[in-house]
Design goal:
By secondary structure, this protein is mainly α. 83% of the residues lie in helices and 0% in strands. It has a domain at 22-63. It has one helix at 6-67. The N and C termini lie far apart (89 Å). InterPro entries: TatA/B/E, TatA/E.
Length: 75
């Protein structure tokens, strides 16, 4: 009663193929693939930039901790 059968998917695929044609579908697939590739590249660049920023913050925090070494009390 629920769900989509294989035959229904095949009929929809044939109708889409007839409406748009193979050339348009090929171009659409190519554009979609290029978009996904660009999105993945942007996400990986953002992730590496975030890791780089985190490393910089850690380095600054460590250098500040070493600068704040306890000094000898004055008498």
């Amino acid at each position: 009663m629920g769900g989509i059968s294989v035959w229904q998917l095949a009929i929809v695929a044939v109708i889409v193929l007839l409406l748009f044609g193979t050339k348009k579908l090929r171009n659409l697939g190519n554009d979609l693939g290029t978009s996904v590739k660009g999105f993945k590249k942007a996400m990986s660049d953002e992730a590496s930039e975030t890791k780089s920023d985190d490393a910089d913050v850690d380095q600054i925090a460590k250098s500040e901790q070493s600068d704040e070494s306890p000094s000898k009390p004055k008498e």
